[in-house]
């Protein structure tokens, strides 16, 4: 009986000590902010906005529409005053600039990759991003969409006649080394550019292209017209996530199969056999639509710009 009593008292003591320890810990953690409050207030007051180095933002007009444009210069741009640089033009500006700037910072700064000017084309100012990109990046009108579609032709004209001349006038660029990069609907838009004006860019990095849009209208155009196009000289990199297929995609889109079909269409062109149209397809393991672009970006640009000397 006494042993049982001692055991019970022991359990009570242990429980009390554990509770005391928890309360003491909570009180101490509660007191820490008050002790450091003034110091943290000073730190917060001295905070500065973080900017991407060597990057400026502009506004360019397309008639009544204003678009934001971000331009990042290479590390040695000012010192190497006679050199002309390749330019990488990107859609979905705010997203793509942060991804591509971060991914290329080390390889470009360490000369593992040829340095290039990054140009990120944003959405129409004053509009929601979705409405601007859906309208501007889609090459055909699909009446089933609530938002406007089918103005890729106009947006391509804006890039060709306004964005690229502005960049070429303001900076030292190698006009023979223009690269297009787009993801999702931006990848669809890039495929449209390749079909309509393939010589506008010498390189294409197409991430997860939304070839399903409008019942695969653009893919059908490639099937019908691409082999009849004259000789092409370009490099085309296509990246797609392994999981961009049912049941992981919206509306059961077969994006992996579409990308593979697109790659095979490009392969069938005579320029591929002649070696002037160079292709690469990367299926990214374990990546879905939300994850694939950063891998597509760095692999695609490494394929294009990796130094071999």
UniProtKB/TrEMBL annotation:
Presence of keyword Ligase: no
InterPro entries noted in UniProt: AB_hydrolase_fold, Esterase-like, Siderophore_Hydrolase_D
Signal peptide: 1-26
Pfam name, any one: Esterase
Keywords: Hydrolase, Signal
Homology family: Belongs to the esterase D family.
PANTHER family: SIDEROPHORE TRIACETYLFUSARININE C ESTERASE, SIDEROPHORE-DEGRADING ESTERASE (EUROFUNG)
Designated name of the protein: Esterase
């Amino acid at each position: 009986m006494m042993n049982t009593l001692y055991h019970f008292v022991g359990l009570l003591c242990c429980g009390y000590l554990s509770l005391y320890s928890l309360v003491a810990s909570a009180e101490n953690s509660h007191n820490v902010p008050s002790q450091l409050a003034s110091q943290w207030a000073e730190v917060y007051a001295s905070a500065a906005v973080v900017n991407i180095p060597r990057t400026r933002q502009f506004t360019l007009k397309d008639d009544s529409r204003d678009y934001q444009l971000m331009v990042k210069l290479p590390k040695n741009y000012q010192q190497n005053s006679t050199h002309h640089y390749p330019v990488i033009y990107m859609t979905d500006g705010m997203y793509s600039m942060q991804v591509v700037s971060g991914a290329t910072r080390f390889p470009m700064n360490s000369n593992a990759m040829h340095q290039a000017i990054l140009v990120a084309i944003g959405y129409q100012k004053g509009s929601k991003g979705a409405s601007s990109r859906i309208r501007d990046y889609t090459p055909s009108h699909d009446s089933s969409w609530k938002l406007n579609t089918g103005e890729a032709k106009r947006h391509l004209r804006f890039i060709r006649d306004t964005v690229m001349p502005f960049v070429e006038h303001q900076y030292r660029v190698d006009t023979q080394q223009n690269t297009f990069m787009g993801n999702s609907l931006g990848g669809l838009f890039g495929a449209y550019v390749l079909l309509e004006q393939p010589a506008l860019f010498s390189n294409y990095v197409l991430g997860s292209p939304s070839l399903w849009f409008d019942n695969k209208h653009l893919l059908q155009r490639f099937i019908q017209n691409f082999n009849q196009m004259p000789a092409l000289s370009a490099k085309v990199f296509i990246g797609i996530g392994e999981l961009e297929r049912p049941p992981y995609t919206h509306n059961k889109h077969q994006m992996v199969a579409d990308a593979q079909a697109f790659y095979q269409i490009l392969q069938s062109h005579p320029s591929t056999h002649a070696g002037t149209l160079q292709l690469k397809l990367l299926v990214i393991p374990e990546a879905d639509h939300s994850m694939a672009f950063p891998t597509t970006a760095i692999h695609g640009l490494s394929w294009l710009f990796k130094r071999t000397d």
